[in-house]
Each structure stands twice: as C-alpha cells, then as structure tokens.
Write a structure and sequence with these properties.
The chain has 2 domains: 4-175, 2-Layer Sandwich (Gyrase A, domain 2); 227-310, Elongation Factor Tu (Ef-tu), domain 3 (Beta Barrel), CATH 2.40.30.110. It has 7 helices and 16 strands. The chain has helices spanning 4-12, 32-37, 86-94, 121-125, 150-159, 167-176, 212-221; strands at 15-18, 22-28, 52-58, 64-73, 76-82, 103-106, 112-117, 131-132, 140-145, 163-165, 228-235, 246-249, 254-263, 270-277, 286-289, 296-301. It has a 6-stranded antiparallel barrel. Strands 8-9-7-1-10 form a 5-stranded mixed β-sheet. The protein starts with a helix and ends in a 9-residue tail after the last strand.
Length: 310
C-alpha cells in the first residue's frame, strides 16, 4: 500500500526498502568478466571494483531475456535480476559455460537486497557496505545482506533517521523517474531500443555480444527507428487505468498499450508509461487511454516526469 510518509522520505530525506522482488546471481572465476562481456549489452569489463552498471541479456534476435544491474566486487560479480527469473537464468547461463574459468550460482537464498534512497542517503550510509546507483533520480544505494541480517540493517538505518517503507511506494518514484521495469514495462518481446535503454544499458563501443547485430542494424542503418517507443503519459482526471489498457490516437486509432500507471504526488496527476507507435511518440501528442466509453484523455510527456536534485 502506498505510504505518503514513505514517499516523502524517499524523495525528500531517506527511505529504506527491502527488495524482496529481486534475485541475485553470483559469477566467480578468473574469466567471469570476459565471459559476461560476450553475453551482456554493456561494457562490464570496464567496471572498476565497486562499480555498478545496467545491462540486458538478449536473444540472438535482439529481444530481451532480462535486464539486470551488474555489481563488480573483488573476486565475484553479482547480477541483480527479477526474483522470479533468477533460477531459470542461472540454468540458462550455466549451459553457456564451456572452457571458461567461470561459475554461476543462484544466491537469492543467501543474499537479500536492501536499498536506501533519498537526498540525505549519502551521509547516512557513509562507511557502510553499500553500492551507489541513483536509479530513481535521487541518491540511491544498494547492499547485499544475508536474510537473517536484514532486520538489523534496517534497524540501524531507521535508528539513523531513515524511514522503513515498501515496494509499492518505491514503484511510484520509479514511474516518476521514467524507468521501465522488466516483467512490467518490458518483456521477452521487447527490443531494448524500444524501451529507451540505449542511454544506460547498451555500449556501442564494446566487442560482440548476443543480439548485437540487431541493435547495430537498427541504430546505424535504421537511424534508431523502431516501430514503437516507450513514452511517458500524463492522464486526465478519472479512474487510474491499469497496465494492458489500450492507447488510442485522437483520431480513434489504436496505437499502443499502457504498462504502468500511478498517481504522482509531485506532479499531482495520474502518470503512466506505455508503448505507442513511433509516429505518436512526440511530447505533446494527445491520446486517449482505456476502452470506450470509459476513456481518459492523455498527452505524451517528456521523461522523466520529475527531475530531482542529485
């Protein structure tokens, strides 16, 4: 359930969130980074110890198997993935190991994610084992904690002034930041260029990776033009639509689907993410959302919906 106090903490002070929706894969062995370099879209070999980056794992056809965050630790790499995908991903990736000195294990039962977000977060986590990743437009930090130790970690943070809040509240901050979530705003049919991942999760200077040919062809030969684009949508007043609702042009043509929607305390209107045909992706384009006759007027908005001070 949305927490107004939690929202204020995440956006104005400090909020702590237990990420039970995430799983953890650990890659070890001397070839761990070079092996991942040939599979993932981003330049993981360039990560320093303690570095974090976003990446995607694609099919040869350039469609997403998952997105992830990659954490480079001394002696191992941790992959932060959707919890429901951790086990099948471990098996799928393990089957790709041949002569490489690399091993991949599902550590979701051994490591839980605790995240801290908010303007005052840097001072609060100073000296603690957190990795910085400002994923939602405010200073953000992630720690990998044994499940039995999570209550103590959260207690220590709340003792310093953080507010313990929930995933539902963090999700509104995510949508305000215009950050698509896999299994919500992206799926196995998504090409990462459709979801706007090229700025943060794709390297165009690294060597080959699975699905690269499609990405390069669309980017360089097609001018980056894909059939549909993920856009921000500002909604008129009314009942907040759910993911999956159709999106229509002002002329009554069905042009896409909604994926996420929320009431934004900061923008003070309903906001949403969704895919529309590229001809309707320009900010300011008027739309309608939902099934007739219960449609909401809407307009394409620039992302992020909210720009916050770092």
């Amino acid at each position: 359930m949305f927490s107004p106090d939690g929202y204020r903490a995440l956006t104005e002070h400090v909020g702590v969130v237990r990420r039970g929706d995430r799983g953890v894969l650990a890659v070890t062995g001397a070839d761990r980074l070079s092996w991942l370099q040939g599979l993932l879209t981003n330049d993981v070999v360039a990560l320093p110890i303690g570095g974090v980056c976003d990446a995607a794992y694609l099919t040869p056809q350039g469609r997403m198997i998952t997105d992830m965050r990659v954490f480079n630790l001394a002696g191992r790499v941790l992959l932060d993935v959707p919890a429901s995908l951790a086990e099948p991903l471990q098996k799928r990736l393990d089957a790709l190991l041949f002569s490489e000195d690399a091993q991949i294990a599902d550590r979701s039962g051994d490591l839980s994610l605790v995240e801290v977000h908010g303007p005052a977060a840097p001072g609060m986590v100073d000296g603690m084992e957190f990795f910085r990743d400002d994923a939602f437009g405010v200073p953000g930090f992630t720690a990998f904690v044994p499940p039995a130790d999570v209550p103590a970690w959260v207690g220590a943070l709340t003792g310093l002034g953080a507010l313990d809040t929930n995933l539902e509240t963090l999700d509104i901050v995510r949508i305000e930041a215009g950050r698509p979530a896999f299994l919500v705003d992206m799926d196995e049919q998504t090409i990462p260029l459709e979801a706007g991942l090229e700025q943060r999760a794709i390297s165009f200077t690294k060597g080959c990776y699975v699905g690269q040919e499609v990405i390069v062809r669309v980017t360089h030969r097609g001018g980056g033009r894909v059939a549909r684009k993920l856009v921000g949508i500002r909604l008129d007043k009314g009942v907040l639509p759910k993911g999956g609702e159709p999106i229509w042009s002002s002329a009554g043509k069905e042009i896409g689907r909604l994926t996420s929607a929320a009431w934004s305390p900061r923008v003070e209107v309903g906001i949403a993410l969704g895919y529309v045909h590229r001809d309707f992706a320009e900010p300011g384009t008027t739309l309608n959302v939902g099934r007739p006759p219960a449609q909401l007027s809407a307009v394409v908005a620039s992302l992020p919906f909210v720009t916050r001070k770092p």
